[in-house]
Amino acid sequence: TALAVLRQRDIALAALIVNETPESGVALDETAASIARFAGDLPVLALPRLTGPDQPHPAIERLTDLLDRF
Q: The whole model's pTM is what?
């Protein structure tokens, strides 16, 4: 996988982000959970599409925390 190649090359990752695809046949959370099984201790964040510009994004706070500690 791409994740394995990055690890082999000692490329540090703070997290892996899975973005939502419109009209996907698989739910975002299912996709993120499937990828997380291969990610080991690397956090996998699901990044849903927002319905409007004023809606707060649920993943940004967690991503900010992870980057601060990276």
A: 0.78
Sequence-distant (6+) residues with CB within 8 A of 44 are: 15, 16, 17, 18, 32, 35, 36
What pLDDT, in 10s, does the model give residues 24-35?
889 999 999 999
* Residue 40 backbone dihedrals phi, psi, to 5 degrees: 65, -130
**Lookup: tokens for 39:** 């990610």
Q: What share of the chain is helix, strand, coil (3-state, %, to 5)?
A: 40, 10, 45
Round to whole Å and give the CA distance between 27 and 50: 15
Task: Yes or no: say if 45 and 32 are a contact pair by the CB < 8 Å rule.
Answer: yes
pLDDT recorded at residue 42: 93
